[in-house]
Amino acid sequence: MQIKGKQVSDMWKKFVILALSFIGLVTSGYAYYVNQLEAATAFQLQKGQKVIIGSYNGKEVVWDIGNATNDYVLMSSKPIENMSTYDSNKPIAYTPKSGSDREQYCIRFTNNPAPSPITYCPITPIINEVSSININATETTVLSRMPFLPSVEEVYNGGTLGLTTNDRSYKTNEAYWLKGVVEAPNSNNGLYANYYFHAIQFPQDSANAASADTPKDSETGKFISNDNKIVYRPSVGYDQVAKSFNIRPFAIVNKINIMFAADATYQDGSWHNYKIDTSNLNMNNETTPVKLRVASSLTASLDEIRNTTTGKAITKAAKDDTVQLKVTANSGSGSVISAILYDSTGSSIKYYRMLSAPSGGCVSMDLSGIPVGDYKVAIINEEYDGTNRPANSSAISNQVALSIVDPHKISYAKQPESGASAGKDYEYTKNVDGGSKVGVITVNPKGVMPLTYTIETSGGDNTYQNFE
Question: Are 437 and 414 in contact (CB under 8 A)?
């Protein structure tokens, strides 16, 4: 078959049109996919916030977020225990041990007269104490690293956890154990060189951590500068008293698994002015911790906001009114829908409120107490178990715009066109006749439009007494 020039040209045109159509479909599909991804609102915890994970001796454990760059590095807000490593049942070695041998002996100086201090005893009891923190099934899914005793290599400035001295050391008073051992190569003109000591993280206000005895991490050979506030200490001092320091566990949370978090007190069903408190980092307190919401099979989307009377979709509501949220959500164990109100840009959370489980695909939302303004509303589907520990939830839903406005205020001012006798407001033939103005009705402010109102012309009031 012969294909002439015009036929070839027409075929190419059809091919190009088909190709462009296909590209258009792919592009449209991709744009729709991106829009769907953007519909869900991302959430980020902040460095310095306090979160609740696990329990120790029956008490919920509160943690500081010390680093939020990659995953969340957690440090217990208060130490869990104060204890010593010294165990009198351990054999005493008079020469430094290495590797696993180090955990079998207490090591004592040999070049000091007896009774000389024991410089290092196994730190196993400290590690075992950290391991006693109870972690439930939900928390296991969110922890990329279970509670652990941090090593020198992990925490020093430039260490693998990305923490600075101010990130990890308590502001005042509290010192805590680190895993690993350090050496003091310059101490006492080298007298203590190559002997093992414990590594202790001193607080930020400690002047005791600055000295000429720069410790060396025996695992990496790295010298630890004084600005780290990491010092070396023996298990037992010259006075033969065992040295006790605090235990401060660390943990790591997988950032992608955290859907949302709110102050642990926000579970009473009231509106709460959403705040993020980062002011108590390393203050040795448990002020304003948050309850974490963890990724699960729960889902939630906000389809529209409706007028409770008409059932119609709305974008405005009167202040202190109640609206209906049309939602699509599955159910979980004790799951409820909670509302999150963002600012007009949808970037900053302003208010949070726990609502209820959906009924007929709708959830009632009372706006009492929310100021007039423009907002973006989102929801989250979350489970509650009566504790402050992490709970399963959906991701934060898409956002729907809602303006809260002042309700209609109608005022009436009588304005008869001329005076009347006998003290009457209105008198036939003098100021009230067919077509005469008797007053003005004003609406200010104008609330949700349209406004419909009726002037009652008859009824059981005393209006007639104003007419003669």
Answer: no
Q: What is the pLDDT of residue 303?
A: 98
Spatial separation of the C-alpha atoms in residues 50 and 265, rounded to whole Å: 13
pLDDT tens-digit series, residues 1-42: 333 333 434 443 443 333 334 334 333 333 333 333 334 568
* DSSP sequence for 13-31: HHHHHHHHHHHHHHHHHHH
Distances (CA, A) of 408 to 55, 411, 452: 52, 10, 10
User: Is residue 457 pLDDT above 60, yes or no?
Assistant: no
Range with the poorest average pLDDT among 152-166, 232-246, 306-320, 362-376:
232-246
Cα 444–Cα 445–Cα 446 angle in degrees, nearest 5: 100
Question: Tokens in use for 150?
Answer: 């941090």
Beta strand 106-108 pairing with 143-148: unpaired
The sign of the torsion formed by the CA atoms of 348, 354, 357, 359 equals negative
CA–CA separation, 354 and 266 (whole Å):
8
Mean pLDDT across the stretch 193-208?
85
3-state SS class at 339: strand
Of all residues in the chain, the percent with pLDDT exceeding 90 is 59
Report which of 150, 137, 195 is spatially closest to residue 176, judged by C-alpha positions.
150
What does residue 130 show for φ and ψ, rounded to 5 degrees?
-65, -40
Higher per-residue pLDDT: 27 or 406? 406
The H or E element containing residue 366 is strand 362-366
Q: Could you tell me if 137 and 253 are in contact, meaning their C-beta atoms sit under 8 angstroms apart?
A: no
Beta strands in 88-136 (DSSP E): 92-93, 106-108, 118-120
Q: Which amino acid is at 126?
A: I
| Token duo for residue 111 | 């070049």
